[in-house]
TrEMBL record:
Pfam families: DUF4340. This is DUF4340 domain-containing protein. The keyword Membrane applies. The chain crosses the membrane at residues 7-24. Keywords: Membrane, Transmembrane, Transmembrane helix. It comes from hydrothermal vent metagenome. Residues 308-329 are annotated as: Disordered. Residues 68-243 form the DUF4340 domain. InterPro entries: DUF4340.
Length: 329
């Protein structure tokens, strides 16, 4: 009897061991493969983008002829930043399903009324393509997301509410002048009636108009000038109805292979420590910090020329006497 009982227990142990091996076999505890949350979203079809924060404030971005504009006034948008964000949303994946209950939406702040961010992407004719909500962040790299019309809540990475602000300044294009040096054919600076004009010659070398025959162009100084005026970033835009009270003190005229435009510059506002500029290609006046163009406005034509070699002030060395020194006595 005892022998039969022991045999039965032994068989039971073997069955339990086999069950444990089966349940905990390699790969059994691995999470399900990550899948796209917005599989039907094609970034190139998105033509508008709205963000609403938890206070109800909304910012609208719209794409017109492949260029993004910000808000109802149509400020230039940062195309790279916005396009990268749309592509990131289209590529969102999650392998972690946090909740499937509607009651969790308010707690996780992904509800229809209680949320941290509501994002709406639309296509042509304002037809909604994707709507979703972002809630609290369980970690520094992840955030809760719920697609509109669904109860499921996911934990995703790659998005942050701090990068989805509702102020227009966060989405402005700050590059106000962007010209490649190699494309520039001429540059003319008019400052208080004085003109500095640079032109490329047939060999693509820069020449300064009015250079004396005995002077040569300082190529390094010219390159420094071009770098400072061909890439100008601003601190902000003025309103669409803004008009400066003073007259412009300087104008820079750019001529490339396919276009010509001007940048007008106004006096520094000492109170605000800013300077107003206006690109003829833009609808908007802009503001920048005065130091950005300070060297350009103080530039003289002679600064672009190599310094003349000064004649030596030392007397010529005494000529040696013919025949060498006299023999010692």
């Amino acid at each position: 009897m005892t022998k039969a009982k022991n045999t039965g227990l032994f068989i039971l142990l073997i069955i339990q061991a086999a069950l444990i091996v089966y349940l905990y076999r390699p790969g059994q505890g691995a999470p399900p493969p990550a899948t796209l949350l917005f599989s039907g979203l094609r970034p190139e079809t998105v033509t508008s983008f709205t963000i609403t924060d938890n206070t109800g404030k909304t910012i609208s971005l719209a794409k017109i002829k492949q260029a993004w504009i910000v808000g109802p006034d149509g400020y230039p948008g940062d195309n790279d930043k916005i396009n990268n964000l749309v592509r990131r949303i289209a590529g969102l994946k999650s392998s972690r399903l946090v909740s499937r209950t509607r009651g969790s939406h308010s707690r996780l702040k992904v509800g229809d009324e209680l949320f941290n961010r509501k994002i709406v992407l639309s296509g042509p004719d304002r037809k909604k393509v994707v709507t979703f909500f972002l809630g609290t962040a369980p970690s520094a790299r992840t955030i809760y997301l719920r697609r509109a019309g669904e109860d499921d809540v996911y934990e995703v990475g790659g998005l942050s509410i701090w990068k989805l602000q509702t102020d227009k300044e966060s989405w402005w294009q700050r590059k106000y002048v962007a010209v490649k040096n190699a494309d520039l054919q001429s540059l003319t600076l008019t400052n208080h009636g004085k003109i500095i004009s640079l032109q490329r010659d047939a060999k693509e070398n820069w020449q300064l108009a009015g250079t004396p025959a005995d002077r040569k162009l300082d190529r390094n100084r010219v390159t420094k000038l071009l770098n400072s005026v061909c890439r100008i970033s601003i601190s902000g835009y003025e309103g669409k109805n803004f008009a400066p009270q003073d007259k412009a003190i300087a104008t820079i005229t750019y001529k490339t292979r396919d276009k010509t435009f001007k940048l007008r510059i106004w006096p520094k506002n000492n109170k605000a420590n800013e300077q107003v500029i206006k690109n003829s290609q833009s609808r908007f006046y802009a503001r920048l910090e005065p130091y950005i163009l300070q060297d350009t406005l103080e530039l003289k034509k002679s600064d672009l020329l190599l310094k003349l070699k000064q004649p030596s002030t030392q007397p010529p060395a005494a000529a040696k006497k013919k025949g060498g020194p006299a023999p010692a006595q």
